[in-house]
Specification:
The complex is a heterodimer of chains A (443) and B (335).
Chain A: H1 14-31, H2 41-67, H3 75-90, H4 97-126, H5 129-156, H6 172-194, H7 199-219, H8 221-224, E1 230-231, H9 240-244, H10 247-256, H11 260-292, H12 294-304, H13 306-311, H14 316-342, E2 344-345, H15 352-366, H16 371-400, H17 407-414, H18 419-434
Antiparallel strand pairs in A: 1-2
Helix pairs in contact in A: 1-2, 1-16, 2-11, 2-14, 2-15, 2-16, 3-6, 3-7, 3-14, 3-15, 4-5, 6-7, 6-14, 11-12, 15-16, 15-18, 16-17
Chain B: H1 3-39, H2 46-67, H3 77-106, H4 110-132, E1 145-147, H5 149-156, E2 164-165, H6 166-188, H7 190-200, H8 202-207, H9 212-237, H10 242-247, H11 249-259, H12 264-282, H13 286-292, H14 310-324
Antiparallel strand pairs in B: 1-2
Helix pairs in contact in B: 1-6, 1-9, 1-11, 1-12, 1-13, 2-3, 2-4, 2-9, 3-4, 3-9, 6-7, 6-9, 7-9, 11-12, 11-14, 12-14
The chains are: A mainly alpha (443), B mainly alpha (335).
């Protein structure tokens, strides 16, 4: 990192100008209808909302990378485990599920955690690997003995409609915090093991935990119905159909010159946008305050020269663990928000290229170490990623226009959607090489 | 107690599949470990480069098949393999020139290299999608079985059948040949010794007149060959789906770290260790137990973990190694 930092100060107008350009892009998307833009405010706001969630994810990644130089390749897993929170917290309880095996299930999970803790204690007290292995084996048998019947009973409970443990019926906004807590707990486990070793080990270990969390969501039907998905997750904002039947809203829409259906969509998306903006600004405020505090100066000192910071008596590994957990918690909050926005928990959609590595492109392009840069990079890259789906084929269509019709032309046209992976890779490589400080450099 | 049938069931369902899978992982881990030893970073683009090499090989295989060329009982892909290796070698050399060489000159931190390899991964992934799409492809031809279940039953008179697919045997044979050639190269040739010297101590190697860029080029060419061979063997044995090649990254890293990053023998041992643990943990042992203890009626399948969690096995192995022996079983490069 330190070798990439140049002395020249950035132009103070740079960030505002770039944000203005971004705003113009969204206004164009909302108003102009041509080959490049859709001219629909619904589309524009939908892209913006997902962009804001990406921005919060990018803020979490930026805390880990920009403040501490930690490379987290399991972003998709932390998003997914955060997304589990709305399902477990806010869905209405499933009738009979708790009675079928709830207490036994909790017992099994406690037994599993207890086994790990006990194994750790046994190992630190006696120093014998054999004794620890025995504890683990006994714990595993106990865990399976408790776990398997409970899961069978829960999944058998009305399996066509539910078959999962169900939620607590609590407010959905609360689940966003719980999502952060889930992700923080997972991050603590991984960080405890992989931090303090070589820097790539954390990258590899987080890659693993990411895949495992997604695999658990996909296969544990009792948890969130696995690949059968969970729809109709409660919303913090009104439903479109309710708005359309509300005469006051119909009048209001007519006064602005919108059709009722279009206006209800826009209204719902604006509500989401305000919520997301509030969360985003709150997190930025906290992050900026933290960065300016003695804690932030210490983090930067550690990042820029670990050896020197260690010599000054800073516990580098403990600080890394702290910031890794904090960053993951932010990613978890974003995951819960994303599932709330979609109203759907579909584990098959968690693709690492889209949810881990694209977020990385956002952070690097925006300017690692700078919170506003991450936000800018996230919304911009998300906009381009979505629009590339439209622009790519159009561009290829123009390019291959002169070619004679045939297999090659058809193949090129068909492969246009894949071009955006190459484009994103190139963007990442080019920024990393030629502008390593990103669009909005760290001050 | 029926030891013979139990043994055959074990060989058929655990030993043979795990050995073939282990060989594929070992080849992949060898590539990771070589790149780590010379270039000193974990290459996240490894899986997608494997997919690229395999995609080229598949395309050439289809071309050969449409021309009517075949190798008889062996898969045609073996003929196409050199083309795949050459294309992959050219691609990784170009990548090194365009991406990694700049950071090498800068002496950038390893994590910057890792980040750059993520960018390369995106590009490789896109290239593979462009070439062949995201769907599953099968490209094995030639003889299917060396030992078929029915023949084995008739020959041995046992209730349990044994199958040895030709791709599995081929995987093992090719792996032995490739490893022998690699170790001969590293230990006996001047270039191989230069590579080991460079890996042990860069400055000393420079002082004794070793050209670092040549060593790096050689490493990439060897790694490209290893990646393509591993990818093609994996594709022949299972089937080719680009996303699987991204997912295999985790077991490959686990194998390389278990053996000790930078240690070739460790990579091979690590590959087999990860593969055998994965298959042993996800295999339902109820059949083998039924032959060994006919009177015992176990309640379940005696499966420790569902097959969908096979990646958790490599992860757990990885965690255990990181906790107790971060340099790996065979003492790789520390820290």
């Amino acid at each position: 990192m330190s070798s990439n930092r140049q002395a020249a100060a950035a132009n103070p107008w740079r960030a505002p100008v770039l944000f203005a350009v971004l705003a113009i892009l969204f206004v164009l998307e909302g108003t102009v209808r041509n080959g490049m833009f859709s001219g629909s405010w619904n589309t524009s706001l939908a892209i913006l909302n997902m962009g804001l969630i990406s921005a919060i994810t990018a803020l979490g990644v930026n805390m880990q990378w920009g403040y501490a130089g930690l490379f987290n390749t399991g972003v998709v897993g932390f998003l997914a485990i955060g997304g589990l929170a709305p399902v477990l917290v806010s869905l209405p309880p499933v009738e009979g599920a708790w009675a079928a095996g709830g207490p036994r299930l909790i017992g099994a999970l406690l037994a599993g955690l207890g086994t790990l803790a006990l194994a750790k204690i046994v190992y630190t007290r006696t120093g014998r690997i054999g004794a620890m292995a025995l504890v683990l084996l006994a714990g595993f048998v106990a865990y399976r003995w408790l776990f398997d019947p409970a899961v069978l009973a829960i999944e058998a409970n009305d399996s066509a409609r539910t078959g999962n443990i169900g939620g607590l019926g609590l407010p959905i906004l609360l689940s966003w915090l719980v999502g952060g807590a889930f992700a923080a707990a997972a991050a603590w486990g991984v960080g405890k093991v992989a931090l303090g070793l070589r820097s790539d080990y954390l990258a590899i270990a987080t890659l693993g935990i990411g895949e495992i969390i997604v695999a658990v969501l996909r296969n544990e039907d009792w948890l969130a119905r696995g690949v059968k998905n969970i729809a109709a997750i409660p919303r913090p904002v009104p439903y479109e159909t309710d708005l359309q039947q509300n005469p006051a809203f119909v009048d209001f829409a007519a006064r602005w010159g919108f059709g009722t259906a279009e206006a209800s969509g826009i209204w719902v998306k604006l509500c989401y946008m305000s919520l997301f903006l509030a969360v985003l600004l709150g997190i930025i405020l906290l992050a900026e305050l933290a960065l300016k505090s003695p804690w932030g100066r210490m983090m930067r000192a550690i990042r820029d020269n670990e050896t020197a910071a260690e010599a000054m008596g800073k516990d580098v590994t403990a600080r890394h663990l702290q910031v890794f957990v904090l960053g993951s918690a932010v990613i978890g909050i974003a995951g819960a928000m994303m599932i709330t926005l979609d109203g759907l928990m579909a584990p098959t959609s968690f693709n690492p290229l889209r949810y881990t590595f694209l977020i990385w492109v956002m952070v690097i392009v925006g300017g690692s170490g700078n919170n506003w840069g991450s936000v800018l990079g996230a919304v911009l890259i998300w906009f381009l990623w979505i629009k590339a789906e439209v622009w790519g084929p159009n561009l290829i269509g123009v390019l291959v226009g002169p070619l004679p019709d045939g297999d090659i032309k058809a193949h090129l046209l068909g492969s246009a959607p894949h071009m955006r992976f190459i484009a994103m890779g190139l963007v990442l490589l080019l920024v990393l090489r030629f502008a390593p400080r990103g669009l909005v450099p760290e001050k | 107690m029926d030891i013979l049938n139990a043994l055959v069931a074990f060989l058929n369902f655990v030993f043979i599949p795990a050995a073939a899978y282990g060989a594929q992982l070992a080849l992949g881990a060898l590539g990771v470990t070589l790149i780590y030893a010379i270039l000193r970073f974990s290459n996240f683009a490894h899986g997608d480069t494997m997919a690229f090499g395999t995609a080229i090989t598949i395309l050439v295989t289809w071309g050969l098949q449409s021309l009517g060329v075949s190798l008889g009982p062996l898969p045609t892909a073996l003929l196409a393999l050199p083309v795949g290796i050459a294309a992959t070698a050219l691609l990784v050399l170009a990548t090194d020139r365009a991406v990694y060489r700049f950071y090498r000159a800068q002496k950038a931190a390893p994590i910057i290299f890792v980040m750059a390899s993520v960018g390369v991964m995106f590009v490789m992934n896109g290239l593979t999608r462009l070439l062949i799409g995201v769907d599953e492809q099968r490209f094995d031809d030639g003889a299917r079985f060396i030992i078929a279940v029915r023949d084995f039953r008739e020959w041995s008179g046992l209730a349990e059948g044994l199958a040895l697919r030709s791709t599995q045997a081929l995987t093992l044979v090719v792996t032995v040949i490739v490893c022998a050639a690699l170790f001969w190269f590293l230990n006996r040739t001047k270039s191989g010794k230069a590579m080991r010297a460079y890996s042990d101590n860069e400055d000393l190697a420079l002082l004794s007149g070793i050209d670092p860029e040549r060593v790096v080029r050689l490493t990439w060419i060897i790694a490209a060959a290893l990646m393509t061979v591993a990818g093609v063997l994996y594709g022949l044995d299972k089937s080719f789906r680009p996303f699987n090649y991204f997912q295999i990254l985790l077991p490959i890293f686990a194998a390389a770290i278990v053996g000790g990053l930078g240690n070739p023998i460790g990579a091979i041992a690590g590959g087999f260790l990860v593969a055998f643990s994965e298959v042993a943990v996800t295999y339902p042992w109820v059949k083998v137990a039924g032959y060994l203890f006919p009177d015992w009626q176990p309640g379940g399948l005696l499966q420790l973990l569902g097959t969908e969690y096979k990646f958790a096995v490599s992860f757990v192995i990885l965690i255990v190694v990181l906790l107790f022996r971060p340099t790996g079983l065979f003492r790789g490069k520390s820290v």
